[in-house]
Each structure stands twice: as C-alpha cells, then as structure tokens.
Design a protein that fits this description.
Blueprint: E1 11-15, H1 20-32, E2 36-40, H2 46-57, E3 61-66, E4 69-73, E5 87-88, H3 93-104, E6 109-113, H4 124-131, E7 136-140, E8 144-150, E9 159-161, H5 167-178, E10 183-188, H6 195-202, E11 207-212, E12 215-221, E13 231-232, H7 237-249, E14 254-261, H8 268-275, E15 280-288, E16 291-299, E17 307-308, H9 320-329, E18 331-336, H10 349-359, E19 363-367, E20 370-376
Parallel strand pairs: 1-14, 2-13, 5-6, 9-10, 17-18
Antiparallel strand pairs: 2-4, 3-4, 6-8, 7-8, 10-12, 11-12, 14-16, 15-16, 18-20, 19-20
Helix pairs in contact: 1-2, 1-3, 1-6, 3-4, 3-5, 4-5, 7-9, 9-10
Bound molecules: shikimate-3-phosphate.
Residues 21, 94, 166-168, 171, 193, 317-318, 341 line the site of shikimate-3-phosphate.
C-alpha cells in the first residue's frame, strides 16, 4: 500500500546518483583495457554490481575502495578468461546485451541468465547480428535467456543497419567489433545515446561518427590498444528527471541539481519540458571523461500540453513515466508518440504508466503506440489539495 501526502515546496541543492549507462560501460571497458582505471561516482545499484561480478568472473580485478570509488585492472582486449559458472545479469538488459557483444568476440564459452523479467526480454535483437561475427548462440525459444555463447575465434567485423533504435544493440555490435580485424560499421537512422562511442575513444579506440541525413554512421577500427583511463561518472539525467518534475509541479519550489550528465542524446525530456513552459537553467557546463556535464536549476511553473514526436523517444526513453506526471499537471491534451519500445523494458512501462495515471484519476488513452494524456491544468497555486492515493494492485 502506498500513501501519498501533499508535498511542501522543494528547495535546495542536490546531487543525483551516477549515470547507470556510463557506470556499466566504465566497468566493462576498463576490464578490456591494459592497466588500472580509477572510477569515481559509480552507481552502486544492483544492475551495475551484476556487471562488476560478471567482469570479475571474466578475469578483471575490480576493487571497491569507498562509496562510488572503484579500481579496475583490465584483462586486456581479447584477454578475458572463460567464466567457471553461469553469468547472472539480474534485472539488467544493458549488462546482458552489452556483454553479449564482448563475449561473442572472445574465444570462450559462457552461459548467461537473468531474473524472471530479464528472461522474458528480447535478446534476438543482439543475437541475430552478432551471429554474423562467427559466434554461436543457443537461446530459449524466441531468443530469450538463458543463453549459451561460443565466442568467435576470428571475429568478423559487421556492417549493420539498425532496425530498432537501441543503444544497447548498437553497443553490442561495436563491442564485438573491438576484437575484429577491420572496420565495424553501424548505421543508425535514429541516433541513440552515444556513451559507448565516447568512452571507447576515452580508452583509446578510433571511432568515427558521420551524419547521414537525420541519422549517423559509426565506424570503429578493430583491435585497438585500449589503455586504462580514469572515469568520473556524471549524475544520471534519468534520476535528475524525478526531482525536476517534482520541483516544476509543487508550488513554490526551486532546486539546483549539480553535476548532471547533459549528453544531447539523453536530454529529450529537458527539451520537452521547455516546450511545456518550464525554464531549466543550465550553468557550469563542462566535459568530463568525454561527456558533457552541468548544473540544472528549475522552479515551479505552469505547464502546457505537448506533442512529443516519435523520433525523440530514444533521447528520453526512460523518462516517459515521469513526463506523463508532468503532462497530467499540464493544461490541455498531450500526445507522446511512438512508445513501442516501452513495452519491452523491465516491465511493460506503457501499461504501468497508464495504470499510474488512472490510479490518480487522470484521463488517458493508448492509441496504437501513442499515449494521450488529458492534463488537469491544476497547477500551483490554484491546485486542489492532493487526495491520498492507495494503490492496492500493481499491474
Ligand atoms: C541503455 C539504453 C536504453 C535504455 C536503458 C539503458 C544503455 O535501452 O532504456 O535504460 O545504457 O544503452 P535500449 O537500448 O533498449 O533502448
């Protein structure tokens, strides 16, 4: 049972936990590099700890020194050892899919599993392209975990045009390409987060990105020498999204969030909130470990409805549930387009978001892959006091 109380104004300065996407990559890529990498600000959530455990099982030496501070002594590219036991990636799709790329290009045998949610998620999207490297996969029906992988002895470089906008799939292909001789080429009609490209460069790989209309072409030169390179993990913009929407919608609020990752392929929510009338002030912009970072200040503001194009989905894919809350407060009807990928996340996030809105008395419709939200326009200071909400059943 969950009880909600009316909030008082939010004020102050906060930091949010380290970026999850970057944390996984820091542990993985440092494990493939020669030398010792120091990581600061690592997210120490369950998903990232699964990646640390898997990389240890594959031969990297990983030490936890203090909160957020980790050291990784890499096994070197191509130097991973065969794991003695099944690799359990828990709930993490990012860990499982990126690791498939790494395992496909090492001549070792491995078996990967995950929790009940991960075992239901589609893996064919990585298995199908990675099979072209020469690796062999045996999976459950429908390409589900558990999965057995026999990595390629002589990895072939791939040329792949993305059919689903997924940074996880793109990253798996690029990571397999690290061990292939020649150029691995990925065409992305709709660009997705490019942390893999940025961080591989940071570790010394040659990654070339060119624009192709609205999309991009990424070319990775295989068999680079990856060298240890310290990483400071920025605050996760996906975590910052929650206090930002809270501050926008609770009367009298004004907050500042320091050290947030501002990669333009992650900030679709900020663009959308600005279109809704929010003013997000960004200061102290800097680059850390190849990633843009800055401080965000936001205050409560009346919001208006928005029409979010499907092409923006990859840059805010994890933010739709909290955007839906902002839309519920806005005046007018919002349409969030092209949300099919939300159905194959850890849970069906489209259904869960609809249930959340409905439980709070918000009118909504799902039209194909679009979510339509009829905003209440109840905004501070006119907003009626929130009624406590009891959610007795979660879908
Ligand atoms: C991620 C990519 C996205 C995102 C996930 C993290 C990543 O998934 O939803 O939380 O770190 O590459 P998809 O690539 O499946 O869209």
């Amino acid at each position: 049972m969950l009880t909600a109380h009316r909030a008082t104004a939010l004020s102050g300065t906060i930091r949010v936990p380290g970026d999850k996407s970057i944390s996984h990559r820091a542990l993985m890529f440092a494990s493939l590099a020669i030398g010792e990498t120091r990581i600061a600000g690592l997210l120490e959530g369950e998903d990232v700890l699964r990646t640390a455990a898997a990389m240890r099982a594959l031969g990297a030496r990983i030490t936890h020194d203090a909160p957020g501070a980790w050291r990784v002594s890499g096994a070197g590219l191509g130097g991973l050892r065969e794991p003695e036991d099944v690799l359990d990636m828990g709930n993490s799709g990012t860990a499982a899919r990126l690791l498939c790329g790494i395992l496909a290009s090492h001549p070792i045998f491995s078996v990967m599993t995950g929790d009940a949610s991960l075992r239901r998620r589609p893996m064919a999207r990585v298995i199908t392209p990675l099979t072209e490297t020469g690796a062999r996969f045996a999976a459950r029906a429908g390409g589900r975990l558990p999965l057995a992988i026999e990595g390629a002895r002589d990895t072939l470089p791939l040329e792949h045009r993305m059919t689903v906008a997924s940074a996880q799939v793109k990253s798996a292909i690029l990571l397999a390409g690290l061990n292939a001789r020649g150029i691995t080429r990925v065409e992305e009609p709709v660009p997705t987060r490019d942390h893999t490209e940025n961080m591989l460069r940071h570790f010394g790989a040659h990654v070339r990105v060119t624009r192709d209309g609205d999309g991009t072409v990424i070319e990775l030169t295989g068999q680079p020498i990856l060298r240890a390179a310290d990483v400071t993990v920025p605050g996760d913009p996906s975590s910052a999204a929650f206090p930002i929407v809270a501050a926008l919608t609770v009367p009298g609020s004004r907050i500042r969030i320091e050290g947030v990752g501002l990669n333009p392929l992650r900030t679709g929510l900020f663009t959308t909130l600005r279109e809704m009338g929010a003013s997000l002030a960004i200061t102290g912009e800097r680059t850390e470990g190849g990633e843009p970072v800055g401080d965000i200040e936001v205050a409560a503001a009346p919001l208006r409805a928005v029409d979010v194009p499907a092409a923006r989905a990859p840059s805010m894919i994890d933010e739709y549930p909290v955007l839906a809350v902002a839309c519920a407060h806005a005046s007018g009807t919002s349409r969030l387009r092209g949300l099919s990928e939300l159905r194959v996340k850890e849970s069906d996030r489209l259904a869960a978001t609809a249930a959340l809105l409905a439980a709070n008395g918000i009118e909504l419709e799902i039209d194909g892959d679009d979510l339509i939200i009829h905003g209440t326009g109840q905004h501070p200071p006119e907003a009626a006091p929130c009624k406590p909400t009891w959610i007795t059943a979660w879908p």
